[in-house]
Amino acid sequence: MDRTAPAHILRGMNRDYEVIIAGGGLNGPALGLALAGAGLSVLVVDAQPARARAKAEFDGRAYALALASRRLLEGLGLWDRLEPLSQPIRQIKASDGRPGEGAAPFLLHFDSAELEEGAMGHMLEDRHLYAAFADAMAAQPGLTHLPATEVTGQEPEGTGIAVTLSDGRRLTAALLAGCDGRASGTAARAGIRRTGWGYDQTALVCAIRHELPHEGTAHQFFMPGGPLAILPLPPGDRSSIVWSEEAGAAARIAALGDDAFLDVLRPRFGDFLGRIELAGPRFSYPLSLSLAESYVAPRLALVGDAAHGVHPIAGQGLNLGLRDVAALAEVVVDARRRGEDIGAVDVLARYQSWRRFDATALALGMDAVNRLFSNDNPILRAGRDLGLGVVNAVPGLRRRFMRQAAGLSGPLPRLMAGRAL
Amino acid sequence: MRPEHSTVDPAEIAKFEAMAAEWWDPNGKFKPLHMLNPVRLDYITTQIATEFNRTLTAERPFTGLRILDIGCGGGLLSEPMARLGAIVVGADAAARNIPIARIHAEQSGLTVDYRHTTAEDLAAAGEVFDVVLNMEVVEHVPDPAEFLTACRHLLRPGGLMICSTLNRNPKSFAMAIVGAEYVMRWLPKGTHEWSKFITPDELYALLEGAGLRPVDRKGMVFNPLTWSWRLSDRDLSVNYVTASLRP
After folding, report:
1. Which architecture characterizes domain B10-245 according to CATH?
2. ipTM for the complex?
């Protein structure tokens, strides 16, 4: 690991790096790799030690990568390695259900055969995705990765920003990117206020092994307490469960032993996968929405959950974050090629105006979907059955839903449209 | 103190001097120029890279090129050129712009040679450049033919001049004068004189008359829906930009 700043003088400035990234989860490394790949000097500062990130064993965490996110990984040169480890999502079946009544007829059926781009998305385990980022960071000479170190202070100073680290160093850059999650310290220090609310709902997350093959089908059951998603993992006999429940019920379920937990889970999605057993530890995450009032401040840009923390329905959090990554990388790289100051107010304003509407609309859209589908009111139930029936009956409308879910609608950053930065 | 020989109209200089202090505020009086700057820079950097065989992804792609920015103002074009590695002279006939531009370049850690002078005086002194940037200037000079001839003298053979200006037609009157100066108040009233605007064909004739060979022209088009500018191959109806070479 290289702990020293590059010695060369950076583009007319005596700065340590062009961009310092606070946060080493997934968005931070992705942004660092995109920028360093385009020739920028980048420091990625991660509060967590490398050992805590790199897991050899499956820990139950997995992502549903949208097609646009896969293209970003292709653009970063990581997809060749990740594709054999991923599970293409060939179909999505959504239906309405109540425990005890079994699964209702499928109300929505998305088939990737209708989408010319191929699979609608891919399931990928967190450990594989992080390992690919870690190896790529180590192999990228323009990127310095600094684990087990925190950004503890920041001070915009005219045409740059001074960043203080927990190891006592004070480094300068043209831009600081806050990829430090919904409790973003970079946002708080910049005085960016947040708005949001809890849902009195908790997501129970785990992986299961099942007797019958999933055949690449993802299921979403809309239950009164919240949606239950069953997402296919490779090689065909494992799936990831994301089960949202009312917080009190979720706490009781989370407290159950593994066998009792499975006894509660089983009747909720019937027997189409045969016998099921746990394939890893169980997690629970309280659901809440947290939106930053601004995505930018002088010499600072917020990315991912630091800008918009959404709950994990349909795995949109990572996809949304990677869209931020691709948009910010494009804005910064274009500005640098023009000779502009990459951290200038007007450059950062381009990133904010590109991303804020999309991210807020999606966050609030998922909020509305969650509220609608978490309701047991018979009128709403009838309405949504009718609404979903309509979506299903009209191929054009359904295709639009699918393209939205695959992340292919709206102005796409170049990295997500299969083009180079 | 003014340069002795000048084709710059003193009344024009006074108008811009009054506006100089706000150069670098993207939301200040020069907001329209800041908004226009990315497309101007896209055009300039692409033309220079093509003509001098440079790769824009390189660390400092314009290293070794000597670039003159005429009417540099606060340095909105000079600084990017310096950041890309060029040796830059920024010339402005308005004395007040020079210290503002110098202070800002120093703050940015960039080296730009800012001078209170004119194209004519630089040419008379025998200065020679690889690239001359002549952006939104020609519509403000009293004698465009004489001015462009001075610009040709400033280029080495094979050198490149980028020249942008405003077309003269009812639409440009509506957009640049009524829209920008009176309705949006983006620019002080009287910034532009519509009769001094030049059609693309007139500019090509002027460039050729000055001994330059025009090689490219593009429109710069404002989209009020996205509130941004883009380059256009076809729409040169208001703002446009040209590239020409000294044979």
Report:
1. 3-Layer(aba) Sandwich (3.40)
2. 0.85
